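Backbone-to-sequence.
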């Protein structure tokens, strides 16, 4: 049987800002055994990851897993500008995507997030009245503050290249990012690498920390991409996973060799990550 072709459409949000959200639905082959809402990473990392997310979604659909790829408000082909995006608004988008999948496939959907999308999935699941069916985390960003700092450094590096700086590399260190944070706290939007960052989104990111969230209440599969076989997950990721497990979370963490495709200069693939993701649902199929 041939896997059905992906269906692009615009999802209308009920009263949300910025118009409709662009979605790409990968219908499952045969009867749906599971469903996943894919949450993309932040800013340019989203574009670097589009190909691998599509490859994974097609492969999952062939195994009977329906996948909805959703561009969050102000991102990709969705309505609104990036400068209008808000963290709580993105969580509203998550809710809308889950509702759509549930109505379409009549199964309880899970959340699949990459990088900041994984942190968004964790934050949403922690506050939801009922947890998602599962969490699939690809290289999760553990703190919004670290993501924001990395993004602000792009602004500082751009200024350094354009104008030069007597402080050299020091200008893109902690003092430089703190100065930009002060401007954001004062209410000033910042243009960074072609994206307008609104203070409300920046301040929300600064406050989201996976370590401060309760342990997930659903099964979690966490994949960390490492440089070579045999290398363990980073210490911070391992500590957080161990803490959740000690609280009773149903969690499996794996280190998967592969490239950092979300930041690579050229579009990269990670075949072993795709294989490990597909294997999750092969195992569940065998258990039926």
């Amino acid at each position: 049987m041939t896997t059905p072709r992906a269906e692009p459409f615009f999802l209308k949000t009920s009263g949300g800002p910025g118009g409709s959200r662009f979605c790409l639905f990968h219908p499952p082959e045969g009867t749906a055994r599971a469903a996943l809402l894919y949450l993309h990473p932040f800013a340019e990392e989203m574009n670097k990851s589009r190909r691998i997310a599509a490859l994974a979604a097609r492969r999952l659909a062939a195994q009977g897993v329906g996948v909805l790829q959703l561009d969050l408000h102000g991102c990709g082909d969705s309505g609104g500008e990036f400068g209008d995006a808000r963290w709580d608004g993105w969580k509203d988008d998550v809710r809308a995507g889950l509702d759509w999948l549930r109505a379409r496939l009549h199964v309880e959907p899970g959340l699949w997030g990459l990088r900041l999308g994984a942190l968004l999935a964790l934050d949403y699941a922690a506050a939801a009245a009922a947890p998602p069916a599962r969490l699939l985390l690809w290289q999760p960003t553990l703190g919004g503050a670290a993501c924001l700092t990395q993004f602000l450094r792009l602004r500082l590096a751009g200024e350094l290249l354009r104008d030069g700086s007597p402080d050299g590399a020091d200008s893109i260190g902690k003092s430089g990012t703190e100065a930009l944070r002060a401007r954001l706290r004062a209410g000033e939007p910042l243009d960074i690498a072609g994206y307008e960052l609104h203070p409300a989104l920046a301040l929300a990111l600064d406050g989201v920390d996976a370590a401060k969230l309760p342990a997930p209440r659903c099964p979690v599969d966490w994949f960390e991409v490492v440089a070579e076989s045999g290398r363990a997950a980073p210490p911070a990721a391992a500590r957080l996973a161990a803490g959740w497990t000690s609280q009773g979370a149903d969690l499996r963490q794996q280190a998967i060799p592969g490239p950092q495709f979300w930041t690579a200069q050229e579009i990269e693939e990670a075949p072993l990550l795709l294989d490990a993701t597909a294997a999750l649902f092969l195992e569940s199929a065998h258990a039926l």
